[in-house]
Amino acid sequence: MPDSHALSRGAASPAQIYRSKNTPAVTLSDSEAQVDMRKVRAYRLQRVREGLKARDYGACVLYDPINIRYATGTRNMTVWCLHNAVRYCFIPAEGPVTLFDFHNCEHLSAGIETVSEVRHGTSWFYFGAGPRSEEKSKVWAAEIADLVKAHGGGNARLAMDHCDPFGVAALGTHGISVHDGQEVLERARCIKNDDEIALMNVAIGVCEIGMARMREALEPGMTENELWSILHQTNIAMGGEWIETRLLASGGRTNPWFHESSDRIIRPGELVSFDTDLIGPFGYCADISRTYFCGPGRPSDEQRRLYRMAWDQIHTNMEILKAGMTFRELADKSFRLPEKCLPQRYSVVYHGVGMADEYPHCAYREDIESGGYDGVIEPGMTLCVESYIGEVGGTEGVKLEQQVLVTDKGVELLSTFPFEDELLVKEI
Description:
Blueprint: H1 4-8, H2 14-21, H3 37-54, E1 59-62, H4 65-72, H5 78-83, E2 88-92, E3 98-101, E4 117-120, H6 126-129, H7 133-151, E5 157-160, H8 165-172, E6 177-180, H9 181-189, H10 194-217, H11 224-237, E7 242-243, E8 248-250, E9 271-275, E10 278-279, E11 285-286, E12 289-293, H12 301-320, H13 327-333, E13 350-353, E14 357-362, H14 368-371, E15 382-389, E16 398-407, E17 410-413
Parallel strand pairs: 1-5, 3-4, 5-6
Antiparallel strand pairs: 1-2, 2-3, 7-10, 8-9, 9-12, 10-11, 13-14, 13-15, 15-16, 16-17
Helix pairs in contact: 3-9, 7-8, 10-11
């Protein structure tokens, strides 16, 4: 029994301290139906296992933190692990999942039912292993080979999303052949169920709050970096994780596209274009682009002409988008850019989006032979519909983008942030 006199004096027992320090998030609710994360994790892991079986792989080893997050629902220092190969997991087509984590991080996966065992990972990338990389890779390969033998069902075909040459060679000494695991994960990730869409909508909601705050704060004299920081702050404060790019530009830096946010001072009468590329709560991506006008004053006819063309492009391309269409059909039927804009066209007409940009990549008609590929649009895909309008030699450019869900009846709009009334006019 707790010491009642101690409690009356304000002291707390160790158990009480532990409970107070592990208070759940205030977003938990006892009066609303909420997403069942166990169901989400089960659905995603099953998609991975189905992909392995369909390709006759006995198991996969995943290093990409986004793939690990998708398959297991666990995370640890995601951005750092993207370039430091310290965390990986072994997933057999049937059987227990083994997660190899950074040292002293076993507790991060406590209570996650998709993970059967957590072990200390063997790192053999150069920063961690230095000149012992080849030696360490052999230790790593022996442990993976034991798992393949124990849980691979006699199938030594192993899918991997990333593996350096030392690792491939070391696995080969155990009779294990290495195959493309990224295909398995990309194709698994591309079809979302209703729970995933709900989680994605949370990320989009956070993103659009940040966009609204940016719009409200925009004024002459602030720098691009100051404006861009508002989106980052909003995302982190509301449980988001990171932003993948720095794509915000103003004035003449909007043409051509892909200038990164800088300390340039935004001036009155200029366009400000940006692409959110935001990884929000639950690890889902909100990839939305908008272009704002910085007052005072009114947009020029040229600014409105460019904006209207970008608006027409994404809306035309949303209208034609249907399940069952091939990527080549979409390229052929999509909005035609004028000759002055073609050389500076965006890299894709549509692309998949989930926990990041992902399959599919739907190229322009002009690019599909040289750099694109064909495929089929399926219900459950979430796509971004892209536009960049900037003429060669032009003063400014406009970036717009919407995020949509493909259904068997058409598309549903997921991003709802309004367009700019003062830039969007029917006639110039």
